[in-house]
Amino acid sequence: MSRFFGAAEHAAFVVPDFDATVNRLIEAGIGPVFTMRRIRVPARFRGERHDPLFSAAFVYTGAMQYEFIAQHDDTPSGYKEFLERKPEGGMHHTAYFAPQGFDAALADAKAQGTEFTIVQEFIDPTGTAYEIYVEPTGSADPLLAQLMIAGPMEPFFKEMERIAASWDGSEPERDALKMIPPGMVPPTEPA
């Protein structure tokens, strides 16, 4: 998908067991693991409003960022749909910034011969999407692309990369929500 959207920011995996995945990363010496546990984010899935409850973890190994996501409820979402196809989990998407905007990025891809369908949108209080997942139209087993508006997430990613570059093994799991710009922190729910 890089030929359509440019350099990938990260590769993301949907997993059935979040804690087991976090522990596996830490045991492998990959970290620190920046987690957002049990967040509920306003979203639209295939055009309908659904707000999934999920956890996400980000890690860097060198300059490469990986994300791991586990959904905790049965709300319709791109994550739930993926696990219904692949209960063992696996690679869900690659992420890209779309500095020219979503419509322009998708129009450019279509002009290059591949049309994408919007699967999921994360939305702000006005209903405007700030992040979307898209799949190649008609694919039976799609690898999704995540398109993000450049801006608020870039400093968040750069700070995680900076911290990971000199990580000494201390504090292996860290709360990523403390690093997100004010006003963007999603609500959390207890286990």
Brief synopsis:
With 191 residues, the protein is an alpha+beta fold.
CATH class: Alpha Beta
Instruction: Give the averaged pLDDT, no decimals.
Output: 93
Q: Give the SSE order as H and E letters.
A: HEHEEEEEHEHEEEHE
Strand content bin: 35-45%
Structural class: alpha+beta
The protein's oligomeric status is single chain
Which stretches of 5+ consecutive residues score pLDDT under 50?
A: none
- Describe the sheet with the most strands: 11 strands, mixed
Distance between the termini: 36 Å
Question: How would you portray this structure in words?
Answer:
This protein has a single domain (2-179), classed as 2,3-Dihydroxybiphenyl 1,2-Dioxygenase, domain 1. An 11-stranded mixed beta sheet has the order 4-3-8-9-10-7-1-6-5-2-11, sandwiched between helices. The chain has helices at residues 2-5, 18-27, 78-85, 102-111, 153-165; strands spanning 10-14, 33-40, 43-45, 48-49, 53-61, 64-71, 90-97, 116-123, 129-136, 144-148, 173-175. Helices cover 24% and strands 35% of the residues. The termini are far apart. By secondary structure, it is an alpha+beta fold. The protein is built from 5 helices and 11 strands, in the order αβαβββββαβαβββαβ. The protein is globular and about 50 Å long.
Keywords:
191 residues; alpha+beta; 2,3-Dihydroxybiphenyl 1,2-Dioxygenase, domain 1; 11-stranded mixed beta sheet; 11 strands; 24% helix
In terms of topology, how is this protein built?
Blueprint: H1 2-5, E1 10-14, H2 18-27, E2 33-40, E3 43-45, E4 48-49, E5 53-61, E6 64-71, H3 78-85, E7 90-97, H4 102-111, E8 116-123, E9 129-136, E10 144-148, H5 153-165, E11 173-175
Parallel strand pairs: 1-6, 2-11, 7-10
Antiparallel strand pairs: 1-7, 2-5, 3-4, 3-8, 5-6, 8-9, 9-10
